[in-house]
Write the structure tokens for this entry.
Amino acid sequence: MKVLMTEYLRINLDTENWECRVCDHVVGSASKGYKEGMLVYNRDPREIHPPIIDPDKYRFTFSPDPEWVRILEYYCPSCGTMVETEYAIPGHPPLLDMEPDLPALKAQWAQRDEVKETVVGPAVLPDQGHNH
Amino acid sequence: MKQTATQVPARKPSAEEMKLIKKFLSDNTLFLGPDPEIMQNHDLMPRTALEEESINKVSDAHTIAKIRDRLQSGCDEGYEMVEQMGAAPGAKWGDVITGVYSASGDLAIASAGGVLIFSALVHHPIKFIIKNWMKDPTVGVREGDGFIHNDSRYGNVHNTDQSMILPIFHDGKLVCWVASTVHEGENGAIEPGGMPSMAESPCDEGLKMSPFKVVENYEIKRDILTFLQNSVREPKLQYEDMKVKLFACLRIKQRIEETLNSDGPEALVSTLRLTMENVRAEVKRRISEWPDMTVRTYIIQDSTLRENCVVKVNCKLTKTGDRLIFDFRGSAPEFTNRPTNTIVAGLKGMLAQVFLCYVWPDLPRGQAAFAPIEVITDPHSIVNCSYAAPNSQSLMSIFTGFTAGQHAVAKFLYSCPEKYTKVHAPTFNMINTFIWGGVSQHGETLGNLCADLNGMGAGATVDRDGEHALAPIFATMADIGEQELNEEDVPFLQLVSKKMTRDAIAPGKYRGGQGYTMIVATKDSEQWGFMTTCQGAKIPPLQGLFGGYACGAYPLSKVKGVDVYDILLNEPAKFRHSIEEIMNDQPFEGASYTTYHMGMGFEISKRGELFMISQGAGAGYGDLLERDPAGVVRDIEEGLISPAVAERLYKVQFDPQTLAINQEATAAAREAERKARKARGVPFSEFIKQWNKPTPPAHLQYFGCWGDDVGKLYMGSADQSHHADQPRPNYMRHPKDVRIEELEARLAALGALEDEKK
Ligand SMILES: [Zn+2]
């Protein structure tokens, strides 16, 4: 049984591993953080959030300050999918962001059927309410 | 002779003596401040004997549902009344709420529209009234009474919101309470508009109304009203909105009385109680469907609104069985003389909004949905500040706290087979708007704000882009108002309004909803000014989700030394309609063009000078290389992103003239980028060896824990810290003193200060 944990990650309850949902790569043990099985890149935030006003003229430009914050990009080492981002203070240890309780997860899914496709959730329908 | 001390065991006072001591203390309380017993508790009060008895008599689900719907529409009717008649700009856009509270003070039913957090906090002042005024012979709680309240420390977001609270009696017995709350704006604080960023102590924050009686026999007491009017900048607004709130409460009372007459008091009491108990039980059931897990995140506030610095809001969310625990320990210590602190009830109120607005919007709106969820904080922290700390800009901490919660919750929801909403990246969380004040073109003294604070960009979801300028995180059903209507009352124009700010993006497989530009200039008053109170000019106040990016940064730009109304009259071709063009082209000769962080204290403006800001984008969702190329081109066509940025980030290849997509070239460019990622990415274990540092960087003024050690809280530098359970004062220096010192040091280095006497 596999549990879809994020857009790009699932946990294989039989092997207790994180797996990439895009390329099926085994990322690593689910008793540790998935980030430990990722490639990491320290991104200058100005490359993603470009300066809108001239950085040679102005102190504030609509770009985050690269000396104040960096974007850590986590890539699947097999397919290169960007599995997660983390806006981090320079030098701040990456967060163990998802730490599942595996025995509890197994017990919970023992009562459920496997879910193989993303459950999107209910759509918000137009033409309902909001009139004044 | 040797003296021996005989140990005498402390004598325990007898029960009778204890009673006497308690009575003495309660008879001699010198000041009824905020009661920690009330303020730290957000769970439902225990079932009372009357509730028990009523439930025994009436518990049929259909009757309960029928009465609940009637009360709900009564609240909605009251909400409409306040929205239509309220004088505060906030009222007109829905920054109001009404609710029905149990006899013990719990919020059972709130209006469907409006700002839930307001009413989710009013249970605190009601419980204060019950505990202190009900039996007090000098006050009392009688039919026809009404109580007013605004002091956040007794249960409120900030002092700009005012509540009217009415007890409802049946045959002489208190059966419930009704209340109405409005973001009024003015409250006589050190700056106009009710949310001063310059407040350095609670004494700078204006009116501080602990709950007190202001209505008797359903009439506002004129002497007290006059005192309140005399304490604020907008005396007419103070009166008008007190009346509006009173009459909205009376309408809800009328609907309650109709129910009392048709179904009896037991049915009412039982409906209120069972609604809350059922919601609470349902929430525990829904939580138990989540995976047992711990999720960690943090959100950074990049300023105190006075100076840039790094202020951490740290969040660890743990779910075990049917328990859900928010642990905010490790967040920054409270600032002794900055107003961005919040009382913990405010944080909880915003977290309640995560659930009722974004996760389980199908549940009846009230206090019960958050009642079983636990919250841990450090005392004297930015998310649980003390009585002595200013908190007029608590929005900074409750909104970043909200985002931490929203970000963490999404990681639990993805795997749940049963969903009530879509998994959602964080929505933008700062009130990027102009607060304004002064004397209007009609000679009125005003102090308030533009409704654009409600135009926050929405986060992307699992299957679609975020919507632009959708709604504020504190009220998913609010409006951004009509600027033109506002301009009839105020002496300034929004020369550019609601035009999307190009390239202020949050990319992803689904991109965040974007924010729009606001350019204002005063026209018809010499006594008019603006302020802005937001963070995020250096560090985005969001995190992205599942590979999506957060928003960028949002500064304040000013153009001075120009009267743009003269330009528009004489040389209109010189005007530009975006911050990008005005700041980069500098079309007005002789003018000064400058940028700032978004904490502008109240500043008097001259006719025709430009103040320019942008609303923010919600966060993106998923890997941007998976974005449909057609979506990227649509964003170019809609002016959300420039072609060069789109091509560089999304790797979409298109014809620059026709924007026709070359699908093969796009696929190839994206494949090449995936390869490039694998080439530049470093294995985690190697990466942390060079990235991880043991302490915060020396060049940043850093507040809060570093890494996992939540016991050690930094206070501005790597060598200043305190243990989390031993708080210390945390004073910030005046930014002007800091600047003068820098400049003097430069002068001294040049030898220019040598002859100055000390
Ligand atoms: Zn992969």
About this structure: The CA atoms of residues 31 and 102 of chain A lie 7 Å apart. The helical segments of chain A are 45-48, 102-110. The two ends of chain A are 50 Å apart (CA to CA). Chain A has one domain: 2-109.
